[in-house]
Amino acid sequence: MKNKQMNKVVIVGGGTAGWMAAAALGKLMGKNLDVCLIESDQIGTVGVGEATIPLLIGFHQLLGIDEQEFMRAAQVTFKLGIQFENWGAIGDSYLHGFGIPGQGCWACPFHHFWVKSVQLGNKAPLTEYLLHRHAASADKFQLDPESGLAYAYHFDATLYARYLRKFSEQHGVRRIEGKVVDVATSNENGDIESLTLESGERISGDLYIDCSGFRALLIEQALHTGYEDWTHWLPCDRAVAVQTTAVKPPVPYTRSIAHESGWQWQIPLQHRVGNGLVYCSQYLGDEDARELLLDNVDGEPITEPRLIRFRTGRRRKQWNRNCVSLGLSSGFLEPLESTSLYLVQSGLIRFMQFFPTTGIDPVEVDEYNRKSRLEFEYIRDFIIMHYHVTQRDDSPFWNYCRTMDVPESLARRLDLFRSNGRLFREDFELFFDGSWSQVMTGQRLMPEGYHPIVDVMSDAELKSLLNDISRSYAKTAASYMSHGDFLDQYCRSEVTD
After folding, report:
1. Catalytic residue flag (residue 79)
2. What is the mean pLDDT of residues 188-200?
């Protein structure tokens, strides 16, 4: 298909993924492209991807989105990390914050210094030396880039998609109301040639972006790309979600609460709370899951509980022929670490970097798919680690997760950390060593040794260093406003729906 001008992009499906794609293409490449998005009001979206990671801020900056305007429009609150409860053992709690604990050196990260201090009797967790933990535990927040207080957002996914739709249309994207009922492919090369809507209207493009969710209308139903199933490592296959009224000021973190057969999320927004229970149907029935969720929410339900079925894994190719899949159509990793929208963002940016202006080159498609595969696998391993590194033995679900075989890539990483605290970030993987060490130690995996450079410091010097770091972060966090007060000042929304 080389030497064919690629001028028209057709996005199938709205929701967060579709409108993120439309916003980016419209703003960054719209002068040279005809971009349209097909969306049906008859088809609902999953709409529960309401927690993010800090990299979304860079995406917004790239698009020139005003933070305060976006936050008011989507009922946004700030997020400093995820508080994990009952994961390592029942009663445990730790924060995976968006920062790197302490102060490392050229030879090793900070956790090596902390490991020695623990061997000397220090009882403080690794996150005692993380600014995010101090701010989150006090429900404080401030825009403080000088101190390294990285943050992300909680938002209403429906309102966010609505905001991006308005933004996209301002940059030339056309929205077409309709339901795709037929996808025509070429007898010659198998590419997608056109889409037919329920109204009979026929739409064609040069490139297609599949944002049709779990249906994978183009990438799978039309192109039969295939799916790599990861449920033997990530056995949860259901979620039930409900929105509730807010009964207290929003905290600046997501809560992830482990149960006997899965885990529950709590995401505080300005106007309500998003709740959900992720579980394995082999161990917990749908009605029991519904009851468990409703018994463990704080406010009154304002929506009916919604059941979502899924299968963890990835499409064997995220880009197949003249179709790129984004969001749920490209694969699914449960929202334990809020990576769903990041994968949309990352896949979209990668697609624009590889944009085939003069035709599709198989070499570039292969490289796109290679990078996409690695990114999915890196995140997969990080999520599996939460389930596998546990001492819980109170239910068949946790016994399975604790004793299951894990990918060789993860097993190697766990062995390296367990021996002498070694952590190495590979290629362009998302999570840094600070994230791995927070979760591993938070779930009771302790290294047996540490890097010998730590012994350059005397025991007294080490104790003094750690005390200074802890006191400094506690003092900084104490100077911040309460999260609720900061929201009132910075971006309080008057929107109620």
Report:
1. yes
2. 96
**Euclidean distance between CA atoms 46 and 211, whole angstroms:** 12
Of residues 324, 322, 344, 323, the one with CA closest to residue 333: 344
Are the CB atoms for 447 and 421 separated by under 8 Å? Answer: yes
pLDDT digits (tens, 9 = 90+) for 148-160: 999 999 999 999 9
Averaged confidence pLDDT in the chain: 96
> 3-class SS at 247?
coil
453 neighbors 108 (Cβ within 8 angstroms): yes
79, 140, 317, 371: the active-site residue = 79
Helix (H) or strand (E) holding 71: helix 67-73
Say what percent of the chain tops pLDDT 90: 94
- Report yes or no: 340 and 286 within 8 Å, Cβ to Cβ: no
CA dihedral 352→356→360→363, nearest 10 degrees, is -70
Residue 493 vs residues 159, 167, 488, 497: alpha-carbon distances, Å: 12, 18, 8, 10
CA distance 346 to 331: 13
State how far the Cα of 474 lies from the Cα of 476, in Å rounded to an integer. 6
- What is the band of 45 on the pLDDT scale with cuts at 50, 70, 90? low
Nearest to 332 by CA among 370, 380, 289, 388: 380
H or E element: which one contains 323?
A: strand 323-325
30 vs 7: CA distance, rounded Å = 10
Q: Does pTM top 0.90 for this prediction?
A: yes
Mean pLDDT of 79-97: 98
Report the pLDDT value the prediction gives residue 491, as an integer from 0 to 100.
95
Q: Taking 70 as the threshold, does the pLDDT of residue 2 lie above it?
A: no
427-437 in b/e form (b: 16+ CB < 10 A) is eebbbebbbbb
- Pair 109, 437: CB distance under 8 Å: yes
Element (H, E) at 11: strand 8-12
